[in-house]
Amino acid sequence: MEVLRPEAGDKPSLRLKFKKARAKFAEASGRAVSSAIETHIQRLIRDLAEPSLQVCLYRSLADEPQFALKPEREFFYPRLDGDDLRFFRPHGPLSKGKFGIEEPDPALSRELDPSQPTLIFCPAVAVDSRGSRLGMGKGFYDRYFTSHPTAVRAAVVYQIQVSLLPLHADSWDQPVDWIVTETMILRTLRRSN
Q: Is the pTM of the predicted complex or chain greater than 0.90?
């Protein structure tokens, strides 16, 4: 496996390198590892379960790790509202949003109560063991995590997306507490503190 070497402050080129590695892995092995990823997501939900825990999932893009937990109506999904994310538990079908990602219809859904315990699974382009997360560059999850600091955060990635070296993090970048891959569930150093 190729080791991708992060360079401080060079997020665009690093993002491109990890996206290419993710796409290559998804094409070759993505389907083969999807059940392992689902199992690890379910295990983390079970291990962190507490009364009134709200669990947020997302719909994956084609080259992101694929998972489908059922029944769908038990989980909350993100919806873009301008530059911000809001999470809803769907009571109807999801439809394609601004970036081609399936989103719930607020009129047919119940909105997440941020005052209740919440576990949010999020996508990433890359992560490291400190919990630093490199996203797609729009900052949607970073803004949400800044506004809701008590939410437990778990990045879902292929093992190839876990950087062996520390990723550069800007002041606005929000780390994750857990990393879920096809081979592991890792409690990050952020969570350990």
A: yes
Which residue's entry shows tokens 């062996």?
A: 164
Nearest Cα residue to 151 out of 16, 71, 43, 48: 48
d(CA 121, CA 43): 13
Q: Is 193's pLDDT higher than 60?
A: no
In angstroms, rounded to a whole number, what is the distance separating the alpha carbons of residues 10 and 159? 22
Run of H or E including 15: helix 11-25
Q: What is the DSSP string of 125-157?
A: SEE-TT--EE-SSS-HHHHHHHH-TTSEEEEE-
Confidence band, pLDDT 50/70/90 cuts, at residue 98: confident
How far is it, in rounded angstroms, from Cα 23 to Cα 46?
A: 30
My answer on whether omega of the bond before 6 falls inside 30° of 0, hence cis, is no
Listed range (34-43, 93-102, 103-112) with the worst mean pLDDT: 93-102
Could you tell me if 147 and 32 are in contact, meaning their C-beta atoms sit under 8 angstroms apart? no
